[in-house]
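Changelog note: in this version the structure field was regenerated for every chain. One regenerated record is shown below for reference.
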Amino acid sequence: MNANNDRYVVGVDFGTLSGRAVVVRVSDGAEVGGAVHEYAHRVIEERLPGTGVRLGDDWALQSPEDWREVLRHAVPAALADSGVPAAQVVGVGTDFTACTVLPATADGLPLCELPELRDRPHAWPKLWKHHAAQSHADRINALADRRKETWLPRYGGKISAEWEFAKGLQVLEEDPEVYGRADRWIEAADWIIWELTGVETRNVCTAGYKGVYQDGGYPGEDFLAELNPAFAGFTGKLGPEPVPLGGLAGRLTAEAARWTGLPEGIAVAVGNVDAHVTAAAADAVRPGQMVAIMGTSTCHVMPSDRLAEVPGMCGVVRDGIVPGLWGYEAGQSGVGDIFAWFVETSVPESYEREAASRGRTVHEHLTELAAAQQVGRHGLVALDWHNGNRSVLVDHNLSAVIVGQTLATRPEDTYRALVEATAFGARVIVEAFETAGVAVQEFVVAGGLLKNRFLMQVYADVLRRPLSVIGSGQGPALGSAIHAAVAAGAYPDITSAAAVMGRREQAAYVPDAGRADAYDRLYAEYRALHDHFADGGLLHRLRAIRNEATN
């Protein structure tokens, strides 16, 4: 009898708007229970909670208490839903959005929870899509390029405004007191592990992709001092040396056991990123398997046995997805968010009434109308830069462009053009990898958007390749559970655990040759538009005019 049959693990996925927990059987990866807890504060973008303090443009914060509430509510609810006795749970794993980073005291208390700092925006955790540090990222990139820093090519020649160093430099220069009070600058992925175990750790994934940790070290103090003399000691706030994925971070404390209803002392896996951990859930941890986690944004991750410089990638990190391979990351800053924006701002009431009369959402109604069109019928091409561009241009101050609209343009036309734009953006990323000599052998889709069959077919046609799809609707949480099984000793490594507990359907969508040919013509126009606006000149000036008018 397989001893794993009677053992279970819990995976907890901390997303942008909510956290979810799943209970998973170790022997086969079956998800036997689950629950979701919505964040009370969701994304803090306008004012600090309970203070009235107004935030600036491009800010996005979160509340640490919302994350604790996931442990208190989603985990016990998932356990109850499963019917599994808590005593049979042997481990717990977590994943987080990245780079979601916060300043804390030496014992892990978030600075925003100190009464005297609650009304200071920089004391709060900065969500991944906090883009107000773009000017700081620009300075870091310019200096690194001038100094020929060896780590810069590992990030496609640019680091992002979303990452640890840019956000840390912003705190230093805009609120030096908060910066000085921060003994730790820590990814939420590692902070939540601290809450669960009482042990401070750093994982190699966030350190490598978001903290510029390469070849055993961070950027040197002389580099940081040239940015700002007071920034020289920044890496001292980044905590202990990063540890491998799938490892044992510590044991569940008595307090965390009371929160979660799980047994005290069970294994807690090293922290991880939602996108990267999903590769295990899809059993896509071998070289050339690119996983696109498609939701509000899209993150593309892929293991490879080859090290290369891919322009505009978010990073290549040794052991960053699975130990022993190079892990690549790229991404798109807005995908589902773009479709949601369009529905919320640009659809007439007549469409809402028609959708309601048919018992459908507006998204479903627009999708049906868009799907009925032939490729190119709308006469439009759009740039998917509503939330900036993560790959391959790495510029969060870029903005969207839609070309070809006339008085005959209908909402479903624009909606379809936006769907196609995100597919074109994905094709740019795939082509960048293959041009650099890093083969993409399989394209695997995960995330909430894979439920939209029209969207998936557009991607297959635009990419001219089959799409595989993950076999779970809770990819990150399942991936975290797989890591928990490894940390608990049920499997020797992530690859062997993923082979048993992960799952995907290969070639679930295949391209149609006629539509693919038609999309090649539209993609050529997209690339022309992409390259024309890539320098950001006009788009940056428009943003500056907007910001001046707002202030």
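Spot check on this record: The chain has two domains: 9-282+471-507, 336-469+512-550. The mean pLDDT is 96.
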